Amino acid sequence: MPIGLTLIWLLPVVGGVAVALLPPHFAKWLSVLVAGMTLALAALVAYAFNPLDHGYQFTEQVSWIPQLHADYFLGVDYISVWLVVLNALIGLIAVLATPAGGGPRTGRFLGLLLLMEGGMAGVFLSVDLLLFYVFWEAMLIPAYFMLWLWGEGERPLFASLKFVLYTLAGSLLMLVGIIGVFFFTGARSFNLPDIAAHQASPDIQFGLFFLFAIAFVVKVPVFPFHGWLRDAYVAAPTPMLLAFSGVMVKAGAYAMLRILIPLFHNPSLWWNWNQVMPWLAVAGIFWGALMALAQTDLKALVAYSSLSHMGFIVLGIFSFNQLGQQGAIVQMVNHGLIVPALFLLVAWLVDRTGTRDRSAFFGLAPRMPVLAGVFLVVALAALGLPGLNSFVGEFMILLGAWSYSPVLAVLACSGLVLAPIYMLRLFQGAMYAPASGEDLPHGHAGHALAAPHNDLSAAQLALLAPLVALMFVIGLYPFLLTHLMSP
Amino acid sequence: MILAAAVNYSWAQAQGDLAQVSPFLVVTITLLVAIIVDLLLPAAARALAVAGIAVAGFVGAIAAALLLHAAGGHAAYSGFATGDDFAVFFDVFFAVLGILTVLVTHPYLARRGFLAPEFYVLLLAATAGMMVMSSATSLVTVFLGLELLSISLYVMTGYARRDTRSQEAGAKYLLIGGFASAFVLYGMALIYGATGSTVLSVIAKVAGSNTGSNLLLLGILLMGVGFAFKVSAAPFQMWTPDVYEGAPVAVTAFMSVGTKAAAVAIILRVFLQGLPGLSTDWGAFLAFVAAASMVVGNLAAIVQISLKRLLAYSGIAQAGYILVGLLGAHPAGQDSVLFYLVAYLFMNFGAFAVLILLAGPAADSDRFEDLDGLGRRNPALAVVMTVFMLSLAGFPPTAGFIGKFFLFSAAVAGGYTWLVVLAVLMSVVSVYYYFRVIVHIWSPGPVEPRVPVGLGPRVAIAVSVAFVIVLGILPSLVLGLAHLGAAPIALAAGR
After folding, report:
1. Which end of chain B is more exposed for a tag (fewer CB within 10 A), N or C?
2. Which residues contact A163 (CB under 8 A, 6 or more apart)?
3. B307-326 and B417-441 are packed helices; what angle lies between their axes, rounded to 10 degrees?
4. Residues facing B138 on adjacent strands
5. Cα(A70)–Cα(A133) distance, integer angstroms
6. A446 to each of A41, A110, A154, A437, how far by Cα in Å?
7. What would the 3-class secondary structure string for A76-142 be?
């Protein structure tokens, strides 16, 4: 039996435990090694992936709890393969972005980071619903500890507990849903293909859809279940935030595509859930963009922009056609590249100026031309400029949404208009001096001046290079992703 | 009739019957040996020697139970007791609990200054009582075991002689426990009146599915109330926090797992084996008790400032989860209950073991603040305690998660979906207070003094944490054993 997929999640988990236990001296190098090996393995899987085969590939199946017909069942298909690679890539970047030194504390942080990466890989690899749930919950524990013990701001404990309770309220209901799928669909199995073959009646689907969807909409998050988002993102330490915003929230969208769509075609009793979701998605696109406009805190701004972009992904998933759903997958990868890049840039800006307040700094471009240039590329990618990656995904999603409901597509489009406003306003405000005649913000001039010549270092640029390069590659050659999905 | 049977009771028969209760017999003989050794040895060596004898006795009981299983246990004493796999399962369970208790208790007793061999004698007596309960197949033997267990526990609760809170807890437990016993006894009397027998198999035949008998229903209700007292389920849980708080923490650790498991064993035995036809009646009662326990236990735990009281309320909530599974389908429900008890043994006892280690010479460490800085002082202990809390909260990949999953899936299969939804929502509440413990463990606090961890506690905690994790990842083996153990009950209930 091949064990490639097992290694993709087991390697970071074992490595994470080792990193936390071994002397802190080795921590950084060992975790880079582990994350690098995981990435190599994931890339190998993607390389060997057969685009013509639409089932699960590289499957590993062993009986796990025979009494309940639960299997240890791993596999990748065209939905998960890119997310597995993305997870490994962001995992490596997050490890590299963790400052070395700091003694045992750093070692423990790196260990938790790797544990979280392993948990997320497990979520994307599981084909068995119970196994999926185990990984889904397990990845929460390292996230909680990192948010709390390494969190920024005044009340990381509050933010982490809020995040955990929000997420758990959803995911424990999913546990009931998983039990319900086992008994009420007649599948008597946790195996996803088996369950998909047993379609329950619409009223049962209605109940089960609700139980599952609650977990996923909290995780993504979909408007109006985003209460944890701002606090958690603002509190999250940067390396963890990369994996958190870049990959973990994708797990929610991935689960919608993996579980809700194939298992519950027609969840209707009093109403049809399938018709509710796209409207929530569009509401999220709007709400996220409007809230991003109103933020002065840089991290919060990016957090709300992320809410808006995740709305597009959910819209694509619930447009119920291939184009929209392919767009959603492409966009999951895109967003997973853009948001970590944005958060990294924000973190470096904050390092250099000592504040997260948007209005406090300006005129940085002449002093930090490289940072400004990279920031521009990432900002343009985020707002969906053609030629960069996000455009491809959003365009596909909007096409898909149009054929589902033109009204929704139009509404989502106008949400797209807001993205350039907050993104470019952020970029211009931070990088260039106010136009002549405008008053300098009083008392803030010191921040910009306090940062004379510390542009991005080569190491920092190297950290961003793969992300930016992939933004161009996917933007110019989207076939790289989509050829795996075309029938 | 019984007299006539006694007259014709041959030696061969006696041997056969004794063999069926051999684990109980081993523990009882050990108890007697311990008392004699206690008298013979010089004072300095007594406690350690008796502790060793107790462990040897528990190991012997496990061996006897396994032999019994290999030989195939069956009914004995004219249907008053049995050596079936259900009894064997619980005998091993209680013996393991006894061993773990001795391992962590010895240094604790020495530190607190009440190291005395009596403690182990009482422990043996309580365990013997629990073993009687698990192998009882008649209301009389059930009561016999219940009282043997309870009386030993009353004394153990008041064991800290100079501590008024321990004394208060002992007195309170005695009074309320006596009250509960009276309920049980009255219920049993009514059932005897309605069916003309105390032997469960006879009751099952006579009662059948005769739901019309008010006498029988009242008996079930009274007995149910008494059992709910023992399992510390709401609304009969009032004694639990006070007794848990007052008793020396080592006694609390033993009691929290032991009484719960023993009470669950007799609920399974009496209700499922003795009254299977009336499952809708006692099912409604147990469903109410389960729902009340989960709500009361979880909500009350939020506001506690004492760790022991927190674990007491958590125990009440856990009793609720167990009852949810108990109502589940046959045989998955019974399997899941037995599995969960094993998980509960290791995670709950493990958590208490850490508290036992933290106890100071003057008093138990009972406040959240006592945990502050544990992550610095004893990182290993802190990690382990975190694992136990995560398991109690039901996080994968721990035994607590998979155990809850089995309980809940059995209950859904049994048609109690509403109860499962309630259980799940209450589990979210529980995460809040279990995480409060974790928060204090990893909060900054005094770096000194490191808590010394002796060999015994080290072994007990290592075993517990290993089981908590291994059971969470590979549950099928123990689930298979639970299935084996629950088979006699499920068979009788399904008939």
Report:
1. N
2. A143, A144, A147, A228, A231, A232
3. 160
4. B199
5. 12
6. 48, 35, 24, 19
7. ECCCHHHHHHHHHHHHHHHHHHCCCCCCHHHHHHHHHHHHHHHHHHHHHHECEHHHHHHHHHHCHHH
pLDDT at A26: 81
Residues B125/B148, Cβ–Cβ less than 8 Å: yes
Q: What mean pLDDT is predicted for residues B353-374?
A: 87
* Pair of tokens at residue A356: 């997260």
pLDDT(B178) > 70: yes
pLDDT digit string, tens, across residues A21-63: 888 778 888 899 999 999 999 999 988 888 778 788 888 888 8
| Residues in chain A closer than 8 A to B483 (CB atoms) | 67
The distance of B37 to chain A (nearest Cα, Å) reads: 46
Task: Give the DSSP H/E element, type plus range, for residue B183.
Answer: helix B164-195
Task: Count interface pairs A-B at CB distance under 8 A.
Answer: 74
**A153-193 tens-digit pLDDT:** 778 888 888 898 889 888 888 988 998 888 888 778 888 88
Does residue B13 or residue B120 have the better pLDDT? Answer: B120
Residues of chain B above pLDDT 90, percent: 61
The two structure tokens encoding residue A84 = 């597995």
pLDDT above 80: residue A398 = yes
| Chain A residues touching chain B at CB-CB below 8 Å | 64-68, 130, 133-135, 137-138, 140-141, 144-145, 148-149, 157, 161, 164-165, 168-169, 172-173, 175-176, 179-180, 182-183
pLDDT tens-digit readout, B26-67: 999 999 999 999 899 888 888 889 999 999 999 999 999 999
Is residue B205 scored above 70 in pLDDT? yes
Which residue from A66, A134, A141 is facing B390, i.e. has the nearest CB? A141
Q: What is the pLDDT of residue B94?
A: 96
Bridge partner list, A60: A74
What integer pLDDT is reported at residue A447 of this predicted model? Answer: 47
Q: How many residues does chain B have?
A: 495
The mean pLDDT of B137-158, rounded to a whole number, is: 93
pLDDT at residue B243, as a whole number: 92
The rounded distance, in Å, linking the Cα atoms of B130 and B151 is 12
User: Residue A91 and residue A93: Cα distance in Å, rounded?
Assistant: 6
pTM of the model as a whole: 0.91
Pairing of strands A57-65, B81-82: unpaired
Q: How many CA atoms lie within 13 A of B149 on its CB side?
A: 31
Chain B partners within 8 Å of A176 (Cβ): 408, 412, 417, 420-421, 424
User: Phi-psi region for residue A384, left (φ > 0), alpha (ψ -120 to 50) or beta?
Assistant: left
Tell me which residue of B148, B152, B225 sits closest to B186, measured CA to CA.
B225
Rounded CA-CA distance A274/A291 in Å is 26
**What's chain A's average pLDDT?**
85
A191: alpha, beta or left? (left if phi > 0; alpha if psi -120 to 50): beta
DSSP 8-state code for residue A272: B
Angle between helices B399-413 and A129-138 (to 10 degrees): 140
In sequence order, what are the beta bridge partners of A73?
A61
Closest C-alpha to A298, from A338, A235, A347, A237:
A347
Predicted pLDDT of residue B316:
94
Mean pLDDT to the nearest integer, B200-216: 81
B495/B489 Cα distance (integer angstroms): 10
Which two three-digit tokens encode residue B471? 């059971």
Cβ neighbourhood burial of A452 (10 Å; 0-12, 13-18, 19+): exposed
Q: How many CB atoms lie within 10 A of CB B7?
A: 6
B402 contacts in chain A (CB < 8 Å): 65
* Closest to B419 (Cα-Cα) out of B281, B333, B294: B294
Output the pLDDT for position A366: 77
Average pLDDT score over chain B: 90
Q: For A248, which DSSP code? A: I
Interatomic CA distance for residues A279 and A220, integer angstroms: 15
- Tell me how many degrees the CA angle B63-B267-B14 measures, rounded to the nearest 5: 45
